[in-house]
Each structure stands twice: as structure tokens, then as C-alpha cells.
Amino acid sequence: MQFTDLKTQYTALKPRIDERIQRVLDHGQYIMGPEVTELEVALAAFTGAKHCITVSSGTEALLISLMALDLKPGDEVITTPFTFAATAEVIVLLGARPVFVDIEHDTCNIDASLIEAKITPRTRAIMPVSLYGQVADMDEINEIAQRHRLPVIEDAAQSFGAEYHGKKSCNVSTFGCTSFFPSKPLGCYGDGGAIFTSDDALAKACREIRVHGQSARYTHARVGVGGRMDTLQCAIVLAKLERFDWEVAQRMALGARYNELLAGRVPVVTQRAGRTSVFAQYTVFVEDRAAVQAKLQEQGIPTAVHYPKPMHHQPAYAALCCPDCCPESVRAAARVMSLPMSADLSDADQLHVAQVLRA
Known about the structure:
Strand order of the largest sheet: 1-9-8-5
Number of helices: 11
Largest sheet: 4 strands, mixed
Mean pLDDT: 97
Low-confidence stretches: none
Helix content: 25-40%
Number of domains: 2
CATH topology of the largest domain: Aspartate Aminotransferase, domain 2
Radius of gyration: 20 Å
Structural class: alpha/beta
CATH superfamily of the largest domain: Type I PLP-dependent aspartate aminotransferase-like (Major domain)
Shape: globular
């Protein structure tokens, strides 16, 4: 059994993926070829955002967004410690300081009710993470941000395709940043990502930053990075986008079935009313996790942990926050376990996973 079944997906999409790749090989425009613009137009239409800027990774999407906001050393960005390192590292790379806010115990997303107390005169942005495929409480976060005149960057690396009260993830804040890492709900075959915004000036800044700050060829209007998404990877995402609506529906159905199969026996990450999840991971809470994982592995069931140690307990970031500042994040890190999940997960395999876990 595959934890994320990319082989079955490729088999289903092989003619379109191969055709798309061959087209790039034929025209030879491997950097900023026509597929780049084609994908940006398609993704903007999908989310409803005015602008989409493809970039080389989800990490680069976050970094470029912060650079477009002119983040300075000493500035602060409010975020969650229960996330992948990229969320915090881009803040630190720019000389700013991540300010960690604890999570909700049931969704594992940032607890919006705790954000306002952490705002200081140095706060420059709020960066919630849409963990496991579900958007955080963006209404409350945006209201807080508006009161304090702060931009919001949704780290939507895991939630592309999800909805929040009828609006698509990546179009619920100042910026939405996603990843096309192969295991994501919409993935390429390498690294890739995208930035979404409806602000014309910020979109212009992001487009310039991703090509070394160029406003025109060899005219560097600002400091930038080499942040372009390869044409080949854009071509692959374009091919996958053709059945993405079906995949999102499948993921939601599989998530609902997991909920039913595990109800009353295994606590799971909760989906809130008014939100959908694309289940980038289907995550449960277990005690004695290592023993549970070993039992599942004996039955041929792979698992993963997203994430075993929160950022404020990581050596590189421990000095930024006291060890006891985010107890829910620490508790979740000790108990979360992700189960096999992809649009092509069979009913039989899913039932097997649930039965073994229940036992």
C-alpha cells in the first residue's frame, strides 16, 4: 500500500502528462515558457484570485510574499509553531522574528482567539497555516488584521482546492501561498509553488522578485531571488489540473468515510462547519504512537507524522519562545499520526487501514 499513491494517478493521466511534457521538449522553452502563463491564468480562475504568480516552491512563495511586503530585520510575523519548518524559516531568513501562537486542539490550526494578544508595534504580518488541508478561521484572523492594518499570508501548502465559506483557499487573505510538491493535493514531479493575490501592486512586486528583482531585462528595480517555476513542472500541473475537481471530490469522500469508520474509537482532526478539507493528510490522534505505527506497519500499512516536534522545540528556533508557550502544539506533536490518503486510495485498502487501526 502506498502512503500517497502517485503511480496510480500517473497511470490515469499518462497520455495527457506525456503529451504536455513532449510539447515542452519540442518547443524547448524550459524557463518561462508558454505553459507558465497558461498555468497562472488557469489557477487564478480556479481560486478566484486576480493574480497567480508561479514560483519554484511553496517555501519560495512565502519568502517572496514577505519580501513584497518589505519585511525588515526586527519585524515580527505571527504564525503557528505546529507546521513544517518552511513557515518559520522564511521569516528568520529575512531577519525578522516569528511570534508563535498556539493551535486549536481539534483542528491543529492556529487558535485565532490568541492572536491579538501577541500583536506589538513591531508586528508586520499574520501567517496562518491551513494544516492537513483545512483553512484556519480566516474571518476572525482577517478581522484582527484589519483592525491593526496588517496583511495576512495564508500558508496554503496543504489546502489548495479546499473552501472556506464558499471561497477557495488561496483567495481568503492578502496573499495565499501554495506548494506543488509531489505529495500535495495538486502536485508536480519536483518542486513548484504559487502565490495568489488580488492586489495589483503586490502582484507586480512578486513577479519582479521571482526574477532577481527585474522590472525589465537587466534592470533590477528591487532585491530579488531566482524563484521561477520550471516550464516542465507547469506542464505537469496543467495536465493534473484537468481531473483535479474529481480528485478533490474523492479526497472529501474518503475523508468522510475515514471519519465514519473511526467514529467512537479513534479521535481525529476535526473539520469545522463552513469549511471543506482536501485532506492533504488524514490525521488522527493516538497514544503510544510508535507502538501503533509498528503494528500498522506489520500489516503493510504505512503512516507518517506531520509533525513530531513543533518549531519552538527545534534547535534552530528554540530561543524564539519559551518551551511552555504553546502546550497544545506540544501535545499534538506527540500524538498525531497520518494515514494513507490520496484520491486513488481504494475502498478495500481504506477499510483495511481502519479495521487494523481500530483493533
